[in-house]
Amino acid sequence: MKEESKIVTSKFKHTPVLSSEVIEAISQLPATILKKGTLIDATIGGGGHASLILETYSNLHIIGLDQDPVAIKAATDRLSIYGSRVKIVSSNFADFFPEKKVSFIFADLGVSSPQIDEAQRGFSFRLDGPLDMRMNPKKDLTAAKLIKETDERTLADLIYKYGEERFSRRIARRIKNDLSVNHSYTGTASLAHAIASCYPAKFRNGRIHPATKTFQALRIVINNEIEALETLLEKAPNWLLPGGIMGIISFHSLEDRLVKHSFLKDERLERITRKPIVASANENSINTRSRSAKFRMAKKL
Ligand SMILES: C[S@@+](CC[C@H](N)C(=O)[O-])C[C@H]1O[C@@H](n2cnc3c(N)ncnc32)[C@H](O)[C@@H]1O
């Protein structure tokens, strides 16, 4: 009889991307490590990847980090069945220091589906919510504060740099004009509408919503995402045992470029993946988030 899986479903609905590729990557660790090693999941989210890893490698232990208290609660609930094999730590990965060296470090960057799908978090341009976008609600900087306190030129530069948005100047001008007249936007839907109106009509109805790049840029700035990734790339190789592996899934070119460059140049590491691992056509058809996912790995020398 087929053994019943211990993986439980939770209200935190997030489908992990490239999960079989992550499981395969871990199998590259020496058998001695797989018998008693520890893995840091730097972005535990709802514990989707973590539960698959814990199920597949029954001797591995996981330290799971997240800066979002909702994710911490979801992962704690979901992974409690694994007892002492799991330790959940509420922390930005950039601020973390492990007590001991580990055999694998994994990060699945960016936002989770529940963060996007919960309108109150303010990440979505499709659902109306407050202009928030903080993964860690204890932080001070919200989207409302950012657009209010940043001058037009700087705002345009941020939207261009972190969103690679070619209409950044018009968008920043429109946002600042709206704010000078109305003092604030009512929420993410009205901001998205204003951004869309900056697009020439022929580009407005494309496959990608016109607010996608600007929302990405604001989210990256608010959560300090690029600096946090740079810090992780600098610190994490020191957390690995010799022969240990670091694997990072990124979702946009700014992140992927940083990971690629770091894995190539870092003298503590040897690159494993020359080209990033991407999702199969089948996974892309089931999970649209996987379409932009790029998974790179490196080994500690
Ligand atoms: C894509 S989700 C991870 C999903 C997870 N792999 C799963 O299968 O459930 C990314 C998570 O990383 C968290 N996160 C992003 N940047 C972070 C950082 N600098 N430090 C800690 N957590 C971070 C987010 O709050 C989010 O919960």
Folded structure, characterized:
The protein has 2 domains: 19-114 and 226-300, Rossmann fold, CATH 3.40.50; 140-222, DNA polymerase, domain 1, CATH 1.10.150.170. It contains 14 helices and 7 strands. The chain has helices at residues 19-26, 31-34, 48-56, 69-79, 113-117, 143-149, 152-163, 168-182, 188-196, 201-204, 212-222, 225-235, 253-265, 281-286; strands at residues 38-41, 61-66, 86-90, 102-108, 240-250, 269-271, 294-300. The protein has a 7-stranded mixed β-sheet, sandwiched between helices. Helix 3 (48-56) links the parallel strand 1 and strand 2. The chain is elongated, with a radius of gyration of 20 Å. Residues 1-10 have low confidence and may be disordered. Bound molecules: S-adenosylmethionine (SAM). S-adenosylmethionine (SAM) binds next to helix 3 and strand 2.
Describe the protein's topology.
Layout (H helix, E strand, L loop, with lengths): L18 H8 L4 H4 L3 E4 L6 H9 L4 E6 L2 H11 L6 E5 L11 E7 L4 H5 L25 H7 L2 H12 L4 H15 L5 H9 L4 H4 L7 H11 L2 H11 L4 E11 L2 H13 L3 E3 L9 H6 L7 E7 L1
Parallel strand pairs: 1-2, 1-4, 2-3, 4-5
Antiparallel strand pairs: 5-7, 6-7
Helix pairs in contact: 1-3, 7-8, 7-11, 12-13
